[in-house]
Request: fold
Amino acid sequence: MFRSGYVEISDRNKTFSQRKRSGQPAVSDPVQLIHPCVKPVEGEVVVGKHRVNALYGTDLDMTLRGNDIHTLIILGYATSGVVLSTVRHAADLDYQLAGCGRRGSAAELGVVGRLLGEVRVGRWPIEG
Reply:
């Protein structure tokens, strides 16, 4: 989710700078990116993100704390990026964590498994 002109993206950003240069129109409303089968109901919180980490630079942490939520279940298809980055940040913010993150190539799973193992010591049970 980005504003027109992708003002949130630096040319140094290796993940999103290509999108900025692509000429592809920015989507400013995160609901537009959600498949119709799982569209949020009225009043349901939707948080758009500008970085790989779902907590960095968003109001997600504030929203969770404001609703007295202490445990996060983290799922994702980009385990080596989105899930790992978000889990690390969430652990630093003292959330209790649970999730499924064992999808992808065998090489990716080996690296991610070791990294998640370091993060989750005693607090992040992963279902495979």
Summary: The longest strand covers residues 71-75. The beta strands are 71-75, 96-100.
